[in-house]
Write a structure and sequence with these properties.
9-stranded mixed β-sheet; disordered N terminus; 481 residues; binds zinc ion
């Protein structure tokens, strides 16, 4: 049954039926500082900070959620030491666009194209999703991300069927303990999205959420607005952008058709606080890329998911030509795993393919993307695209301690002659052995810690049964929709 106006307005009451819902806990989502000092010793340190550089044998000292020092041989007699020999030490990876609510649809419609995805996921399931499905989708997605070395994720939450759906999304992210950006989206339910008073409701709810959960920027979770599509409904997108700026939030936008950037430019709304998603699919003109670059806009590419979905072929060279350095995202787990390494590889493959093809036709040599640039896109550029580059994205003294350790002595990785090439071209989430978020250990020696995984499994089963029932009722095939 589609969620109508009354359900939207009554959503807050429904939120109390969620498992262990404590709004106050999510409200103060500033983490407790990790106790004592931790010295990560003797690893191959890839700081992504030009001043600190790359240290073949280096140490990272953290305390109270902060990076105190990065250097060749740090002395800290009072620190707990983690042996990082045979490991690479990196800033945590950053996923700049994820429809996390869809996580329980993993592996569904594997034989369907983008049209099937839109019909089944946002058409059939989205309008019928309950707040508790959003909660577990977000929690499961966030935990899977942590397991894969993603320490920051932007939740592109276009499942705002009611205020309770928004509360549940925030609660799911908060319960994972990861660094996240909750991007308030819209509803896939036409009855909600096209309601006559939808603008008033959105405005009220966005302000409520900002006030209730995100009064400070100095916390683990921050807020953005995921705008409506500028190509389809420019006036609504303009409203979203203006509200985001009034409230001091960033904007993230799907760009699905050519002309959208031009409309924003003509309206004088382009700015450095904007991230554009799936730009390889818009058949944008060169002028539109120039407009984006001139206003300091950032890009999010879900390279693997975009190729899988037929959005288009991501071309790093085309972006770099205009000085646009992309960030990476998973987009959705229906079609791709929570694996930013796979997204990095997909961009390398697509870029090589396009450049080789170009060189074959035009003569000369293909321009191939430097491997270290690809890792920069997954870390520093992710931090820029989420407005968090003063806090994370590099291993720089003074920044927050979001970092990961990857085993290099795994039988599938040796000899790791160039550890950065190993990370970009070979590593899988299982090779991520340690994950720190704000100095807190989230994965230790290959095992997630501090998260009740059986509870996550149990709630996932409940939601999956409901989702499969919706598909059955709608006559959707689980493979092809
Ligand atoms: Zn998307």
């Amino acid at each position: 049954m589609p969620v109508g106006r009354r359900a939207f307005m009554g959503g807050l009451a429904a939120a109390t039926t969620l498992p262990a819902f404590h709004p106050a806990a999510a409200q103060s989502n500033k983490p407790a500082a990790a106790k004592g000092k931790t010295l990560i010793k003797g690893g191959y340190v890839v700081s992504m900070d030009k001043t600190v550089g790359e240290l073949p044998v280096g140490d990272v000292l953290i305390e109270g959620g902060k990076i105190l020092d990065v250097g060749k041989s740090i002395r800290a007699a009072d620190a707990t030491v983690i042996d990082a020999r045979q490991k690479v030490v990196l800033p945590g990876l950053i996923d700049t666009h994820r429809h996390t609510w869809e996580t329980v649809t993993r592996s569904l419609i594997s034989e369907g194209d983008l049209a099937v995805y839109i019909k089944v996921i946002t058409g059939t399931l989205g309008p019928r999703y309950r707040p508790e499905d959003v909660y577990i989708g977000n929690l499961l997605g966030a935990v899977g991300a942590l397991n894969a070395g993603i320490t920051t994720m932007l939740d592109w939450s276009h499942i705002t069927n009611s205020p309770a759906h928004a509360d549940s999304a925030i609660k799911g992210l908060a319960d994972s303990g990861m660094r996240s950006i909750y991007a308030y989206g819209y509803s896939p339910d036409p009855a909600v999205a096209k309601a006559p008073d939808i603008e008033t409701r959105r405005d009220t709810d966005i302000r409520r959420i900002k006030q209730q959960y995100f009064r400070s920027d100095d916390q683990l979770m921050t807020m953005a607005i995921a705008t409506r599509d500028v190509a389809g409904t420019p006036k609504k997108a303009f409203i979203d952008i203006k509200l985001a700026r009034e409230l001091g939030m960033r904007v993230t936008m799907h760009i699905t058709k050519a002309g959208g950037i031009t409309k924003l430019n003509e309206a004088g709304l382009l700015g450095p606080d904007m991230t554009f998603v799936h730009t390889d699919g818009i058949e944008a003109t060169d002028e539109e890329y120039q407009m984006m670059a001139a206003h300091g806009g950032t890009i999010s590419t879900s390279s693997a998911t975009e190729i899988m979905s037929g959005h288009g072929f991501p071309s790093a060279q085309r972006w770099l030509k205009y000085g646009l350095r992309p960030s990476f995202s998973v987009d959705n787990e229906t079609r791709m795993p929570a694996d930013l390494f796979a997204q990095m590889r997909a961009l390398v493959m697509s870029d090589h393919m396009l450049e080789t093809d170009r060189a074959r036709k035009e003569g000369g040599k293909p321009t191939l993307i430097p491997i270290r640039d690809v890792l920069e896109f997954a870390t520093l550029q992710g931090a820029r695209a989420t407005g968090l580059d003063a806090k994370v994205g590099t291993l720089t003294p003074g920044k927050r301690a979001d970092l990961i350790l990857i085993d290099l002595d795994d039988i599938s990785l040796i000899p790791a002659t160039d550890p950065v090439a190993t990370v970009v071209l070979r590593v899988q989430p299982a090779n991520v052995s340690w994950v720190f978020v704000d100095g807190q250990v989230k994965k230790r020696a290959g095992k997630l810690v501090g998260i009740d995984l059986n509870r996550v499994r149990r709630l996932t089963n409940v939601s999956t049964k409901y989702v499969l029932g919706l598909m059955r009722d709608a006559g959707e095939d689980i493979r092809s929709g």
